[in-house]
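User: Sequence in, structure out. Go.
Assistant: Echoing your sequence, followed by the structure tokens.
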Amino acid sequence: MVHAFFSSYKAKVFVSAGIGAGQHNFTGPTGLAISKSGGLMYFSGPDDGTISKALTNRFNEAGLFVSSNVGESEGLAVDKNGNLYSANFGVGGVGNTIQKITPGGSVSTFVDSTLISGPIGLVFDKNGNLYCANNDGSKNTIAKITPSGSVSTFATGLNSPYGLAFDKNDNLYCANRGGNNIVKITPSGSKTDFATDITTPQYLAFDTSSKLYCGTADDKLFRISPNGNKIELTITGAALDNVMGLAFDKRGDLYAANKDDKTIVKIPTGRSLTKTLTTLQRVQKLVKNQLTIGALNKDKLDALKAQYAGSVNVTNYLNGISLQDF
């Protein structure tokens, strides 16, 4: 399979506080989560103790989901049954707990344990265990919580852990905000530095091709390959502003929660990729068929180059064809 990746994307504001008919005037969105089907988005308003929801195919139509018993929610995750889990960072009330919220909006305490302190990032593994980054300076740990609510410490020795994400091999990745790096943790708990020199990394998300995306407090977005090589992506059209949540929808498009300017932006990582791959594969098939019957010549090759001049990937492919080789 051919993969094409870009280093620049034109983003759009997906939702903005108070903009749009019936829009909830949320505060500083954080803890972005998208349902397993990819069509329903949740995000927290930690400053006013709310959680909002929106459909990923409709712009500027976020509505209030729950507004009580969630406190200062900083991290969200959705289980396979559509239940939402909220990491409540604040002290007092429901602070330092993890709340479970049914699709109908019923809220209950899922975990209230001394092993949870300053919870921020949440993520589920494939077995339904929930992992929580404890950002409290006295902890700096990751807790593992079974489906029944049993809590244990999974990893220690971190430095202000934030967002969490699993790869396809069950390795856990942690945005180590205080260490300016991303740590990889094997299923057995062994830690290694995966990516370094990323200032204030906060939230993480994997795409379907095992590329890890990292949003930072200083308004940057990085894409990191499985071997740890990273590039900073250029985002135009809509700015990033203290990225406090990342999530992919079913199309493969990426959403980033901008806490400081009260917006969520949509970055067309999936749609651009799908369009380019489809175009490139179609041209490759056409060229192969023409070569098979001996009908490809310089004029036809030049015509293809002119037709697809706007596609860098197709142009690179066509420029690499030498008719002398056939």
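User: And one key feature?
Assistant: The longest strand covers residues 40-45.
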